[in-house]
TrEMBL record:
Broadest EC class assigned to this enzyme: ligase
Gene: gatB
HAMAP family given in the database record: GatB
Organism, scientific name: Sphingomonas jatrophae
Domain of life: Bacteria
GO molecular function: asparaginyl-tRNA synthase (glutamine-hydrolyzing) activity; ATP binding; glutaminyl-tRNA synthase (glutamine-hydrolyzing) activity; transferase activity
Domain Asn/Gln amidotransferase intervals: 341-497
Keywords: ATP-binding, Ligase, Nucleotide-binding, Protein biosynthesis, Transferase
The protein's name: Aspartyl/glutamyl-tRNA(Asn/Gln) amidotransferase subunit B
Subunit structure and binding partners: Heterotrimer of A, B and C subunits.
Reactions performed catalytically: L-aspartyl-tRNA(Asn) + L-glutamine + ATP + H2O = L-asparaginyl-tRNA(Asn) + L-glutamate + ADP + phosphate + 2 H(+); L-glutamyl-tRNA(Gln) + L-glutamine + ATP + H2O = L-glutaminyl-tRNA(Gln) + L-glutamate + ADP + phosphate + H(+)
Length: 499
């Protein structure tokens, strides 16, 4: 049987097809109220130089003290990708001089990182693929130069100086922009589930350095370039494609690729040279003499592991095998930790209100969550964390449908009123008289009127045109103002039309 898997990603050049080799170095700001080696705030959006301690400004005699929470979050992240946790690690000084680096060096971990090898499974068009992760090390961020505040001067903002970062370094295992995008989305989701980084790429708390090289399929790796500080999944994918095409053009014209650092221009979809790429010896790394090595004991590691939540892959298995959710619904729910938390609350409260186990209410809950709630949020331009309807109110609405108080049509009407007013569904049903009726006498009376007004269609139905049944259901529901119990209507109509 022929292989139906899609062809691997290739870029066609004048000399034939080229393969792209991609690795990502993701800088993720660690969730913490203080910086890596000082107690200064990490709040986003503060006035320039408002969140700077004497340590961050490198005042003489100031000694760094590691923030335990930053170390804890890095370890938890390593555990979430099933990586090796190094019980002994060490900080090094990376020496270079720049105006936004007041110490004249960055404290990082080159030789002995806190987290070793791990991996991340992603979904591709060809199936699952495992991307190797080489290491996660902890380091401090530099400050920021501001070039647009004065016509002839650049200002320095040290608010980010000393902010704790995890640098998550992948293996060069990705072979297409789509794979890199899938990896980055999956990694961001895990960081947000764990709570070690908020993943907000727009605010700079997660950004990627993109390593790209090209080669003819089967050849050794080519020379790579590094495109720095790309701050969205879309831009990462564009940067890979643009840089790969640039390298192919250079090589096919007889040139060679220079190992260098580049910047991505999102307006042009192109990269441009920033500086030649330094090697480790250029930074004169050496162990930081002000910091003792980190030594992690069993109790600390056990506490870190016990604090981990249910992670996306485990949750996906439970959604499929235990709750029986449709794959499309599960994908929407799992896409972001905020979605998953909201849905889990909805599911638990719906099950409690209906007195049923969660698997019995999961299908209806997920359908309402993905179709009705997300449809409304998209229409309103809101996200789940800004929903005008709470998970408890959603569970109450589902319970009113389950016990027959509301039909599906009435439930949609009630939901629209909930969005507008914020009122609970039971109150809306009571105040507006929207309760579904199962009064057989009232329904039979309306059925009789509908049949009398459509005697020709009754004759056609009895003559074998079974599809007309839907017409009679619709007319009866319309006559009842949408409040009739559909199951009762169907049952009574079948009897009346059979007569």
């Amino acid at each position: 049987m022929p292989d139906a898997s899609p062809a691997p990603y290739r870029i066609e050049g004048a000399t034939g097809a080229w393969e792209v080799v991609i690795g990502l170095e993701v800088h993720a700001q660690i969730t913490s109220n203080a910086k890596l080696f000082s107690g200064a705030s990490t709040a986003f959006g503060a006035e320039p130089n408002a969140n700077v301690s004497l340590v961050d400004a490198a005042m003489p005699g100031m000694l760094p003290v590691p923030n335990r929470e930053c170390i804890r979050q890095a370890v938890r992240t390593g555990m979430a990708i099933d990586a090796q946790i190094n019980r002994w690690s060490r900080f090094d000084r990376k020496n270079y001089f720049y105006a936004d680096l007041p110490q004249g060096y960055q404290i990082s971990q080159l030789y002995h990182p806190i987290v070793g090898e791990g991996s991340l499974a992603i979904q591709t068009d060809a199936g699952d693929k495992v991307i190797g992760i080489e290491r996660i090390h902890v380091e401090q961020d530099a400050g920021k130069l501001m070039h647009d505040q004065h016509p002839t001067r650049s200002y320095v903002d040290l608010n980010r100086s000393g902010v704790a970062l995890m640098e998550i370094v992948s293996r060069p295992d990705m072979r297409s922009p789509a794979e890199a995008g899938a990896y980055l989305r999956k990694l961001r989701a895990i960081l947000r589930y764990v709570g070690s980084c908020d993943g907000n790429m727009e605010e700079g708390s997660m950004r990627a350095d993109v390593n790209v090289s090209v080669r003819k399929p089967g050849d050794p790796f080519g020379t790579r370039t590094e495109t720095k500080n790309v701050n969205s999944v879309r831009f990462v994918m564009q940067a890979i494609e643009g840089e790969a095409r640039r390298q192919i053009d250079v090589l096919e014209a007889g040139g060679s690729i220079v190992q260098e650092t580049r910047l991505f221009d999102p307006d042009k979809g192109e990269t441009r040279s920033m500086r030649s790429k330094e090697d480790a010896h250029d930074y004169r790394y050496f162990p930081d003499p002000d910091l003792l090595p980190l030594e992690l004991d069993d109790l600390f590691l056990e506490e870190c592991r016990a604090s981990l939540p249910e992670l996306p892959d485990v949750k996906a298995t439970r959604y499929r095998d235990v709750l029986g959710l449709a794959p499309g619904n599960a994908e929407v729910i799992l896409a972001d930790v905020a979605n998953a938390r909201w849905f889990e609350t909805l599911l638990a409260e719906a099950a409690a209100r209906q007195g049923k186990p969660e698997p019995e209410v999961a299908k209806a809950a997920s359908n309402w969550f993905v179709s009705d709630l997300f449809g409304a949020l998209n229409r309103l331009g809101r996200d789940i964390e800004d929903s005008p309807v709470s998970a408890g109110q959603g569970a109450e609405l589902l319970a009113l449908v389950a016990d027959g108080t509301l039909s599906g049509t009435l439930a949609k009407q009630v939901f629209e009123i909930m969005l507008e007013t914020g009122d609970d569904p039971a109150k809306i049903v009571e105040d507006r008289g929207l309760k579904q009726t199962s009064d057989t006498g009232a329904i039979e009376a309306e059925i009789a009127k509908v049949m009398a007004a459509n005697a020709d269609k009754v004759a056609d139905y009895r003559g074998g045109k079974d599809k007309l049944f839907g017409f009679f259901v619709g007319q009866t529901m319309k006559a009842m103002g949408g409040k009739a119990n559909p199951a009762v209507v169907n049952d009574l109509l079948k009897k009346a039309l059979a007569g």
